[in-house]
Design brief:
Length: 352
């Protein structure tokens, strides 16, 4: 990788991920890379499920700026089939609860928590039904049922707050660009994937990485993004803004035009310092989670690796070596990317 390409890569990474890449590169140059593990680099894109397998390959290639042969060489078609099978299985488990959330205008986070739970149940082959609660903000987050048990499940995530803030700020600007494009033509139904170089996304003396933009500044950036996307939709040539790395367009959508950010990030392995505060916060609230005395068990589901930079932590069995005592009956760690799970703590094992 030459210096230009390396700089372009760094510009697309959140601060924590960028520093990991720089440290790794410096150690390599200095010959201090003995014992260093390889860096896991990940990218995301949203692909239309209305596409055929071959069309999906084309859309992925366009979103990532790679050739279709490169995508096929990575056995993507087979991976797509596996992802589709898992998705359908999780969807079957969560459809009724999802409809409940939709009918009650639940916040986006609740849908994401449900998605995590569905994937966890499929990955662990746990045969439970998810109970529909009386209200959205139920405590604990979910109730699992079978013939013998009623299990409460509290959901939480290991999250990098700085990366989360950056992604949220960027998404809010993209949402404004969406509204602008739909205001100009409300019949648009494209799915737009866009890759952003965060470190080049500036207005005056402010950067999206280090500052909070005013509403006026967000609107200006949104207009710039909307103008460039519209030039692609209308086959007009304008200069691409420096902070836009790549844009791809899919016409296979039944929904109004949507802009999705293609994230670039590093799968991080150093997260032990984040675990204890998260677990401690949940332990402090245990009394409220356990108010329902009909529960036979109470579990904590900790999701480490959602498909996003703020939660890009690679699950390792090393965490199982850390002694821990809990009020929960079981604590599971779940990798939202690979769908691996570890039983971190169990009262049954502790008792024996």
């Amino acid at each position: 990788m030459n210096s230009v390409n390396f700089q372009e890569l760094l510009d697309k990474l959140p601060p924590a991920d960028r520093q990991i890449m720089i440290d790794h590169f410096v150690n390599y140059i200095l010959g201090k890379n003995d014992g260093q593990t390889d860096i896991v680099f990940r990218r995301t894109a949203k692909i239309s499920t209305l596409a055929t397998e071959e069309e999906m390959v084309k859309e992925i290639a366009a979103a990532f700026g790679q050739s279709e042969d490169d995508i096929r060489s990575q056995n993507v078609p087979q991976k797509l089939r596996e992802i589709t099978t898992k998705y359908k299985s999780a969807e079957a488990l969560t459809t009724d609860f999802k409809n409940f959330l939709t009918q009650n205008n639940a916040r986006k986070d609740k849908f994401e928590e449900l998605f995590d739970l569905g994937n966890f149940l499929v990955a662990t082959n746990l045969n439970y039904k998810i109970q529909i609660p009386d209200k959205i903000e139920s405590v604990p987050d979910f109730i699992l049922l079978d013939e013998d048990k009623k299990i409460g499940v509290e959901h939480t995530r290991i999250m990098d707050k700085e990366s989360k803030s950056l992604i949220q700020e960027t998404k809010s600007i993209l949402k404004r660009a969406e509204h602008i494009l739909l205001a100009r033509d409300n019949q648009r139904k494209q799915l737009i994937n866009i890759s952003i170089s965060y470190w080049l996304m500036n207005t005056a003396n402010k950067s999206v990485v280090n500052n909070r933009f005013s509403i006026a500044e967000k609107n200006q950036l949104a207009i710039t993004i909307a103008d460039y996307i519209e030039s692609i939709l209308l086959n007009k040539e304008i200069v691409k803004p420096s902070f836009i790395d790549n844009v791809s367009v899919s016409d296979r959508s039944l929904h109004p035009l949507c802009i999705e950010i293609n994230e670039n990030y590093v799968g991080k392995t150093e997260y032990e310092s984040l675990i204890l505060p998260v677990l401690s916060a949940k332990e402090e609230k245990y009394a409220s989670y356990s108010e329902d005395k009909t529960l036979t068990e109470l579990w904590l589901l900790v999701v480490l690796n959602g498909v996003s930079a703020p939660s890009s932590y690679i699950l390792s069995s090393d965490i199982l070596n850390n002694p821990f005592s809990s009020q929960f009956d079981k604590i599971f760690f779940f990798d939202g990317f690979s769908h691996e799970s570890f039983l971190f703590y169990s009262k049954e094992k502790t008792a024996t």
